[in-house]
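Handout, page 2. Input:
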Amino acid sequence: TVTATLSVTDGVYSTSVSFMFALGSFTVITLFAENFDGVTAPGLPANWTTAQTGAVPPPSFATTAATANSAPNAVFTNGATSVSTNSLISPVLSIPTFGTKAITFAHTLSFESGTRRFDGAVLEISVDGGINFVDITDPSIGGSFVSSGYTATIDTGFSNPLAGRQSWGGTQPNYSTVSVSLPAGFGGSNIRLRWRAGFDSSISGGNPNWRIDDITITQNFSVCTT
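Output:
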């Protein structure tokens, strides 16, 4: 915003008048997008990886042609009846230093329901290319949910590796869109994102699973030139 102040004189009378002009425009660009539709299920796109922990880990994340948010594919994992985690890890992504950034994706959930949440899922980020990960809302990152944020705290009983953490839990049969805002000062890093599900020592009813689709990272900024 630019303010132009005019000094106006008419004979013995004088005053000043100010006018405010907004220059440039607000622009949104897509830094990264993945809808998992460019591969044949169950394959993953290039440079996407999975990681599992536990004595009897769940099956790896894989694409599926069933129940995608945008046809034909989504990425999917089943749960496990043992203490374990299952992770979907993005390629290394270069994030510019300027502007604010947002991460969005669509997902469905089918974890153990009830007053206690024994299974659940989180979104984590690495700013060193995938060596160390922290939660997207960690103070060192400054991310905050704009929509469809965490819904539960994972129970500290039954040894879930994510015990005590805020997470997505319970059941959600229809897709919702998660949006995470990253602060204006965030950027200049080679990041990786990790969608991570944690399971306890048993399954009570149903088949726990997590389905993810339509991941995007956008950058918002103001410009004064083309």
